[in-house]
Design goal:
The complex is a heterotrimer of chains A (119), B (218) and C (87). Chain A has 119 residues and is an all-alpha fold. Chain A is 53% helix and 0% strand. Chain A has a domain at 34-114: Nitrile hydratase, beta subunit (Cyclin A, domain 1), CATH 1.10.472.20. The N and C termini of chain A lie far apart (57 Å). Chain B has 218 residues and is α/β, with parallel strands linked by helices. Chain B contains ten helices and four strands; from the N terminus they run H-H-H-H-H-E-E-H-H-H-E-E-H-H. Chain B has a two-stranded parallel ribbon with strand order 1-4. Chain C has 87 residues and is mainly β. Chain C has a single domain (4-10, 17-86), classed as SH3 type barrels (Roll), CATH 2.30.30.50. In chain C, 10% of the residues lie in helices and 41% in strands. A five-stranded antiparallel β-sheet of chain C has the order 4-3-2-1-5. The radius of gyration of chain C is 14 Å and the shape is globular. Classes of the chains: A mainly alpha (119), B alpha/beta (218), C mainly beta (87). Chains in contact: A-B, A-C, B-C. Chains A and B meet through helix 1, helix 4, helix 5 and helix 6 of A and helix 1, helix 2 and helix 7 of B. Strand 3 (170-175) of chain B pairs parallel with strand 4 of chain C, so a sheet runs across the interface. Chain B: This is nitrile hydratase. Chain B: Residues 1-15 have a biased composition (Basic and acidic residues). Chain B: One of its GO terms (molecular function) is nitrile hydratase activity. Chain B: It is an enzyme of class 4 (lyase).
């Protein structure tokens, strides 16, 4: 089908996550071991996906919609728990009120993850 | 996220947690918003019987057990057994399962490095990785720098990893854009004819299976 | 037999798995991969029909022109059939 757009001048629609071919600096080689809370985020992502509560593409869509600012400012698993939560809210698994109330309760348990984690 | 708490170590006792276990170092930092969200999401899912604590523990153990050593064993088998190599190149998922690796629903394609071809794996749109075989990806694999540049200047990227390939080598970059995941079958190093499969596996690094490295020479 | 294709150059917003750097570019089908649920529907919680997926091979010269490091190096990507035009 004939296209009315001009392919090479129509790159305004490029989204931030679509990075292939962009200019960027040297690849940073430093790494880190994953913390327990990060492993838990990963496990929740896999388990909820396998139980059909959301799809990988639903998670990716949420991550993409967070925007470039989130990519630059937040760590990988910070963005992933936000994407998992977004999809669970959309699936009606729990309400925002339940989430907000629980996060307040957790803050009151103690100042560190170790004290608040309920693990 | 910045952790600007130089003297947090004095804020509380560094003994045992309420359950009687030592705190992990990474559990000892000030609680963040996102960590609270993880705890809340996990508790709500458990209370609503969507997941169980045992499932979460088991899933973490499954993921911790996945490592580049699994891929290295597959590569070493392919180097040692021509029939297995044929099966690996035809269906890398089936070949990995045949070796007993639980890789779930992973659709895996093995791409073979030779004297004249070098393969490199990237995911420009997110950070797709053969995690069900190799475990979680290295941090650099998820960076803007690697995702942006690997498809446009793979040779320059490879040089940053210490791999300088001649122009006569054809580089094939693989962008994991959809449902497939990729593993590089590195070229078997010279001088390894008498090595056992276990010895060969020790030569196969994670980066060699992503394509940012070569198998070690003994 | 390598079938030649071009990635469609349309730019809809939303969750799409055809990278922008490949849109409008010509390549050859390296192999068919089977049919998979359409991520553009899955992403929004919709029931998704299965779409044929292909691994398409591009020459770096096609993607980057004169600035390609080596024109004969190649790039493979998985592209859904509804993003491909047959040439």
């Amino acid at each position: 089908m004939a296209s009315t757009i001009h392919p090479m001048s129509d790159t305004d629609g490029r989204r931030w996550h679509d990075m292939g071919g962009q200019d960027a600096g040297p690849v940073p080689m430093e790494g880190h071991d994953f913390a327990l809370w990060e492993k838990r985020v990963d496990a929740l992502m896999v388990l909820c996906g396998s139980k059909g509560l959301f799809t990988v593409d639903g998670l990716r869509r949420a991550l993409e919609d967070m925007g470039e600012d989130a990519f630059e400012k937040h760590s990988y698993y910070e963005r992933w728990i936000a994407a998992v939560n977004q999809n669970l809210i959309e699936a009606g698994i729990y309400t925002l009120e339940e989430l907000g109330t629980r996060m307040e309760e957790i803050a009151a348990r103690g100042p560190t993850y170790g004290e608040a984690q309920n693990g | 996220m910045p952790h600007d708490h130089p003297d947090h170590a004095h804020d509380h006792d560094h003994g045992l947690s309420p359950s009687g276990h030592p705190y992990r170092a990474d559990n000892d930092e000030p609680l963040t918003y996102w960590q609270r969200m993880e705890i809340a999401v996990r508790e709500l899912l458990i209370e609503k019987a969507r997941v169980s604590p045992a499932e979460i523990t088991a899933q973490i153990e499954v993921m911790d057990a996945r490592s580049p050593a699994n891929g290295a064993a597959v590569v070493a088998r392919a180097w040692s057994d021509p029939a297995f190599k044929t099966r690996l190149l035809a269906d890398a998922g089936a070949a990995s399962r045949e070796m007993g690796f639980d890789i779930g629903p992973l659709n895996l394609i093995a791409v073979e490095n030779t004297d004249s071809v070098h393969n490199l794996i990237v995911c420009t749109l997110c950070s797709c990785y053969p995690r069900n075989l190799l475990g979680l990806p290295p941090d650099w694999y998820k960076t803007r720098e690697y995702r942006s540049r690997a498809v446009r200047e793979p040779r320059a990227v490879l040089r940053e990893f210490g791999v300088d390939l001649p122009e006569s080598t054809r580089i094939r970059v693989h962008d994991s854009t959809a449902d497939m995941r990729y593993i590089v079958l590195p070229a078997r190093p010279a001088g390894t004819d008498k090595m056992t499969e276990a010895e060969l596996a020790d030569l196969v690094t994670r980066d060699a299976m992503i394509g940012t490295g070569l198998a070690r020479t003994p | 037999m390598a079938e030649r294709v071009r990635v469609r150059a349309m730019m809809p917003p939303g969750h799409v798995r055809a990278p922008v750097y490949l849109r409008g570019k010509e390549g050859v089908i390296e192999r068919p991969l089977g049919a998979f649920h359409n991520p553009e529907q899955l992403a929004y919680g919709l029931s998704a029909e299965k779409k044929p997926l292909y691994r398409v091979r591009f020459r770096m010269a096609e993607l980057w022109g004169e600035t390609a490091e080596n024109p004969n190096d190649t790039l493979d990507a998985e592209i859904y059939e509804h993003w491909l035009e047959r040439l």
